[in-house]
Specification:
The chain is α+β, with helices and mostly antiparallel strands. Helices cover about 50% and strands about 25% of the residues. It contains four helices and four strands; from the N terminus they run αβαββααβ. A four-stranded antiparallel sheet has the order 2-3-1-4.
Length: about 130
């Protein structure tokens, strides 16, 4: 009986340590700041851009885990920024953003979009 009790205590300690380690790893993964992508697209054909490019591009973002933070006309405050709508997307990591950018779905949409717009895109690490 004493042996069984000791075994159960030891097993409980091992399982507890494993669960604690997994929880710590999950917290470290969550602590990594997101990555933001900012685009200012200079549109040459608004109607076709909106009809042919925007729907598949937005769907590809959604399908690959991106999140729209802001989209619409920007208000220039300083400098010589391109004229066009501003889009800000949030991704969990640079790898996630690159996975989306290189996906067949986005690449197909991007080829369409290039016919109707010039893309000015930058990615930046978020802060904690």
């Amino acid at each position: 009986m004493l042996m069984k009790t000791r075994f159960n205590i030891a097993l409980s300690m091992v399982v507890g340590a494993m669960l604690g380690g997994a929880a710590i790893q999950a917290l470290h993964a969550q602590a990594k700041p997101p990555v933001y992508m900012i685009a200012i697209n200079e549109i040459t054909d608004q109607e076709r851009y909106a009809k042919e490019y925007v729907p598949p591009a937005q769907q590809s973002v959604k399908d690959h885990g991106g999140e729209y933070i802001a989209a619409g006309p920007g208000t220039p405050l300083s400098g010589n920024l391109p004229k066009g709508p501003v889009v800000i997307l949030r991704w969990n990591s640079m790898e996630a953003l690159e996975g989306w950018r290189n996906s067949p779905e986005f690449q197909a949409a991007f080829k369409i979009g290039e016919k109707y717009a010039k893309f000015n895109i930058v990615a930046v690490d978020g802060l904690k």
